[in-house]
Amino acid sequence: MPLLNDLSDETDWVEPDDVPRPVVTYGFASETFGDFELDPHRHAKSQLLLVQRGALSCEVEGGLWIVPPRSAIWIPGGAVHAMKVTGALEGYGAFVAPDVAVHLPATCSAVSVTPLLRELLIRSANLPLLYEEGGANSRLVTVLLDELAAAKAEDLHLPMPTHPRLRRIIDHMMATPADRGTLDAWADRAGMSTRTLERLIRRETGMSFGRWRQQFSVILAVRWLAGGASIQQVAGDLGYESVPSFVTMFRKALGTSPGRYMAERHAGRC
């Protein structure tokens, strides 16, 4: 499969759904700095996207996922999804046919990528598009599928409510992430009581308002840090009065400081 990059001719691309192989893997690279988006679309085959450099966010059927370096996102076949890229992006993608024999996730998830899984993706991306089946190439693909089935999920998911009033609040938060308004203030803006807002957000996301907003901050922080922003800049853009308070929130959510988290991600790059 050819490497997809900024200069690739459109004729290089072959629709993976049309390739009669259980797994179709490719590498991708973009040196375009800044953001670009892919409109909502779907594939018959399931999809794994591994990020080596940069950050990818993906909204799938009521949820938002962030994929930092050394992580991947799994998107089941048929799921409508839209993607947004932050900064230069490098990685690998694998499309998996729905009739493979191994048990794979039925729902979208962010997954941690082991060194073995990463090497298998790199190796399989160098196979011919119509690789020979029944020999060494098929065994390579089988091991890839086994590693994918064993991959652990990461907590980089933000449930997205569908209630119109909640979506207006969320849209405003997305546009002004530094706004640290209280629950009462957000309820007043939405024209509902504090109790009603808390009940709706818990019903639609499974989280309290405070927990949801913390996860929202973590998701944005990981996206911006992976795109090259400094910890000081991210703390300010999220409305934190001090860097230590932001670091404390980040460590509480992900178990480590933002600096160490990103250092580990970049150390895992090939």
From TrEMBL:
CDD domains, from UniProt? cupin_NimR-like_N (cd06124)
What keywords were assigned to this record?
DNA-binding, Repressor, Transcription, Transcription regulation
Keyword Transport set for record? no
Lineage, top-rank taxon, reads Bacteria
Q: Which Pfam families match?
A: HTH_18 (PF12833)
Which sequence ranges are marked TM in the entry? none
Q: Which GO terms describe its molecular function?
A: DNA-binding transcription factor activity; sequence-specific DNA binding
Which PANTHER family does this chain map to? Answer: HTH-TYPE TRANSCRIPTIONAL REGULATOR NIMR (PTHR11019)
Q: What is this protein called?
A: AraC family transcriptional regulator
**Native source organism of the sequence:** Sphingomonas desiccabilis
Q: What is the lineage of its organism?
A: Bacteria, Pseudomonadati, Pseudomonadota, Alphaproteobacteria, Sphingomonadales
